[in-house]
Amino acid sequence: MRQIALDLKSKVPIYIQIRDQLRLMIATGELKSETQMPPVRDLASDLLINPNTVAKAYQDLEREGYIYTKRGMGTFISERPDSEVAQRDINHASDVVREMVTRLLDMGMDADHIRRLVDETLEM
């Protein structure tokens, strides 16, 4: 698993940053079904944050069906039917776009400039 990058200056809470990055890793297949997740305390230690923050991200992911916990064994990536995966990915993509647009607006960019940036990126 690649390192999770936290933006401590962001208005986005740290647990949401963790949750969203893990969602993306699951959606892209970087984290495969039935793969064991790092324990909460280990990930928190690696990220130099409070374990409760990681636990909250894991709770959200479990509630959304991305992961599940086996008592005494750890937390694992869920296996989901293709139709659920497709819908989950669409929902996640919408969240990513919404967050990106919000950040760019917060930076002072207007809608036309954001559209141009997106168009240029898609043309690459």
SSE order and pairing:
Elements: H1 14-27, H2 40-47, H3 51-63, E1 67-70, E2 74-77, H4 82-106, H5 111-123
Antiparallel strand pairs: 1-2
Helix pairs in contact: 1-3, 1-4, 2-3
CATH architecture of the largest domain: Orthogonal Bundle
Report the biggest beta sheet as strand number plus sense, adding barrel if it closes: 2 strands, antiparallel
Q: Provide the residue-averaged pLDDT.
A: 88
Question: How many helix segments?
Answer: 5
End-to-end gap = 27 Å
Structural class: mainly alpha
Which strand-content bin applies to the residues?
5-15%
Low-pLDDT residue intervals, each spanning 5 or more residues: none
Strand order in the sheet with the most strands:
1-2
Provide the CATH topology of the largest domain: Arc Repressor Mutant, subunit A
Order of helices and strands: HHHEEHH
How many β-strand stretches? 2
Total of domains: 2
Question: What is the CATH C level class of the largest domain, in words?
Answer: Mainly Alpha
Report the C-alpha radius of gyration, rounded: 16 Å
The outline comes out as globular
Measured as a percent range, the helix fraction is 55-70%
Q: What's the CATH H-level homologous superfamily of the largest domain?
A: Winged helix-like DNA-binding domain superfamily/Winged helix DNA-binding domain
Describe the 3D structure:
It is built from 5 helices and 2 strands. With 124 residues, it is mainly alpha-helical. Helix 1 (14-27) crosses helix 3 (51-63), helix 1 packs across helix 4 (82-106) and helix 2 (40-47) packs across helix 3. The two termini are 27 Å apart. 13% of the residues are buried.
